[in-house]
Amino acid sequence: MTEEPYRWLEAIANRREYVGEQLKSGSPVLAASLPDGIILLGVGSGQSKVFELFDRHALAGLGHPADIEKIRQAAIDAAHVEAFTRAPEDVSLRRLVGFGLSPQLKTHFEQIFSAPSLVELLLAELGSEPAQDLFFRLHYDGAFQTQTGGAILAASQPDPEAVAQKWLKENFQGKTNRSEVAELLLQAWWCLAENKFLADPIPAEAQRKAGWREATKGKVIEIGWLARQSPRAAKYQPLTIADLGL
Amino acid sequence: MSHSTPIAGDFLSLLQEHKLASARVDAALGAVVQTQATTVFAFHFAGGVLMAGDRRATAGNIIVTDRVEKIIEIDSTSLLAVAGVPATAFEMARVLQTSFEYYRRSQLQALSLPARVRALARLLRDNLPMTMQGIGIVVPLFAGVDQTVSPARPQIYFYDPLGAQFQAVGYAASGSGSGTIRSILSFQEQYGQPRPSQMDLPEAVRFASRLLSTASEFDSATGGVNPATDTFATIKVLKADGVATVTEEQQKEILRA
What we know:
The complex is a heterodimer.
Chain A: H1 5-23, E1 29-34, E2 37-44, E3 50-54, E4 57-63, H2 65-85, H3 93-110, E5 119-125, E6 134-138, E7 144-148, E8 151-154, H4 158-172, H5 178-193, H6 205-215, E9 220-227, E10 236-239
Helix pairs in contact in A: 2-3, 4-5, 5-6
Chain B: H1 11-17, E1 35-36, E2 40-45, E3 48-53, E4 57-59, E5 62-65, E6 71-75, E7 78-81, H2 86-107, H3 113-126, H4 128-133, E8 141-146, E9 153-159, E10 165-168, E11 171-174, H5 178-191, H6 201-218, E12 234-239, E13 242-246, H7 248-256
Antiparallel strand pairs in B: 1-4, 2-3, 2-11, 3-12, 4-5, 6-7, 7-8, 8-9, 9-10, 12-13
C-alpha cells in the first residue's frame, strides 16, 4: 500500500479523521499567565488532565489516558535527565517539545501501521516574570504553536478552538486576579464543551457562569498553579475551586 | 513513545538506561588530601525536628571555607545533613533530590519514608569502594516525615559509612565534633530543663547554636557560631507540613534576645 504515494496520503487523511473522531468528546484544557504565576485548568470525570512535569513546567491534556500518560512520562524522563546531567535551569519547554515530544509524536503519527496517539496538549513554562511565560500548544501529529503569556486553550476540534481562543484573548485582557481568571477559563470551558462558541450570539455572562457550575456537577475540576514567588524549586501546586473562592 | 524504566519511578535505573550512571571507583591509587570534618546534628523539639550544622570545610589543617551549607533540603518533607567528603556527599544529595522528585512526579505519589531512608542507604553502599579507601567516606543524617501515622510525624535517621540505617529516638549527630554534641544532648535529654523535646523554636535554635559553639571549642574542624562576626549555623526545621529555614537574621534575633 505504501509503495503508492496517494495511498499513503489517503492513509494519513484517514488517520486524521480517525483521531478527530476519537477526540471529539474530549474535555478542553485551558491555561493563563498571571503576574503571580500560571494557572492551568481542566474538567474531568475521574481521569487526571493537569500534571506537574518539572520545577517550572506543567502539562494539561485531553485524549486517551494511556497516550497522555506516555507523553507525560516521556516529558518527565527527559526533564529530569536534563536537570541531573546539566542543571534544573537548563530544562526548557522549547527543547522538550521541539527536540523531544514533537518529533516523537510526528513519527508516531506517520507510522500508519500502528495506532496514532490520541492527544491534544497544552504545556506551560513559568518564567521569572510574566513576559517570559511560555505556552506550547502541541497536537497529536507533532505540530505545535508557541505563545508568550496571555491565555490559551486546547480543544479537540480546530474550528471551535480558534473561535474560543479569540474570545478568550479578548476577555482575558486586563485581568490579573487568579480567581477571576479561573472563572473566565471555566466559562470558556463550558462554552466549548457545550459547543456555544459557534452559536450566535455567545451566551451572556450570567448564563456562562450558571452553565459551568451546572456542567461541572459530579465532575472534577483540576487546577494546577505554577507559583512565581514560591521559595521552593518545585513551583507547582494543585489547587481546588474552594482554594480560589469559587 | 516513551521508554519505560526497568523499575517504575526509579531515577537511578533511568540514568543507567541513558548510560549516565556515575563510574564506580574500585581501586586505591594513592593518598589524596580530602576536604572533610564537620559537625551536624538533629534533635526532636516541640515543633518537629531541628537539624543544624556548622559551615566549615577543612582539608587537613587548612580551612577551605566557612560558607558551606551542610543541611540540605532534599524535598518538602526531607532533610539531609552531610558529614564526610563534600564531593561525594553533595552528589548523594543531588541524586536524592532528583530521585525523590522524579518518583513523585512520575508516579503521582510521594516516596514513602522507609523508601527514602533506604535510598540513601543504597547510595552509601554503592560508595563502599570509596569508603574502604578512606577517600570518599560519608556519614549522613536524614530526617523525613512519617506519613503513615496520624498526625504525620518527622523522624530522624543516622547511618554508618557502609549504609546501615538506624532510627534515632531523640537525637543524632555526625562528624568530627559529634562526640561533644552527643554528650551534651544526652545530658540535656536526661537531666536538662527543658529537655530538647520540650523546647520551643527559639529555645531549640539557641540550644543548637550553643551546641555548635561548644563543639568548635574542642574540634578545630568545626566552625562555631559567633553573632559578633556574623558567623551562624545552618539551621532547618522539619515539621509535619514541610521544611523551614531559620535564617541568619532570625538566628541573630533569637541569640540577641
